[in-house]
Design brief:
Blueprint lengths: L2 H15 L3 H12 L5 H36 L3 E11 L6 E7 L2 E6 L5 E7 L5 E7 L5 E7 L2 E6 L4 E6 L5 E6 L7 E3 L4 E4 L4 E5 L6 E6 L1 E2 L2 E2 L3 E7 L2 E6 L4 E5 L6 E6 L16 E7 L4 E6 L4 E9 L2
Parallel strand pairs: 1-19
Antiparallel strand pairs: 1-22, 2-3, 3-4, 4-5, 6-7, 7-8, 8-9, 10-11, 11-12, 12-13, 14-15, 16-17, 17-18, 18-19, 20-21, 21-22
Helix pairs in contact: 1-3, 2-3
The protein binds calcium ion.
Amino acid sequence: MSRETYCLILLVILLVTRPSLDTRVRILTSNLFSSWPKKVMRRTALSGALLLSIPALACQTTSVANLKTPEKDKVPIYGYQVVHTFPHDPGAYTQGLVFRDGKLLESTGQVGHSSLRRVELETGKVLQKVDVDAPYFAEGITLLKGKIYQLTWQHGLGFIYDAWTFQKLGEFNYQGEGWGLANDGQFLILSDGSNRIRFLDPANFEVRKTIAVVDGRAPVNELNELEYIQGEIYANLWHADRIARIDPRTGAVIGWIELTGLLARGEVSDEEAVLNGIAFDETNGRFFVTGKLWPKLFEIRLTRKS
Ligand SMILES: [Ca+2]
């Protein structure tokens, strides 16, 4: 008999007999040890129930452990195919990227060069731009219910803009650093360079939930630019040619996208010109990625590697 079958049978027996288990064990011990004092018999009955429970608990623990291990080992790895290559402003230090209504929205960083832009996908032409003045270093952006939210790196200050006019509507505060930003239609989803992702209520910017991103048991740190795509969080990792696909309920990494070789060697020279920027065209299912100071933006299709 397999261990699983044994555990199942034992659990069924326990469930069926549980309400009267104490009584049955007492009758049994009473018949066997009728001459023993009542106090001793009661102890024997309880010990019997405990002894029967221990294997069941052991079975349960083993089952949960068995469930976790294969999941950890089975995180799929994806590669890519380039569908289209588009021009991208090589002066844009990309910190936030969104696709909405046929255009890209982009946030660029570095003090004195920070901005919010609307960009034509096909040409890379900047159609609309508002500068973010020093001392602020702009970071992630997201568009939620007609408003664009933009983070700054180390000032704990965010800006809110009208999504069409780029008119500034307000500001908000948050604890710690601001790196990437996305939303799930309800909450702002914020990364801060650690493995922590916070969910902020856009009504008052209070933290409603925090998840710790882990690959198996290992924390996945330096989470950068984000995108919420079809129920998952996609996250760039700073200085890595890979994107993590994250379960927003648990923080578990449920897939890796390997993008090594996407931009040919020599196309950028700055060591900070790293992959950063994920956007998704919900209408047509198109997936876009670029990097800081990259001259190109790519539409890619994911391929399963393992
Ligand atoms: Ca994004």
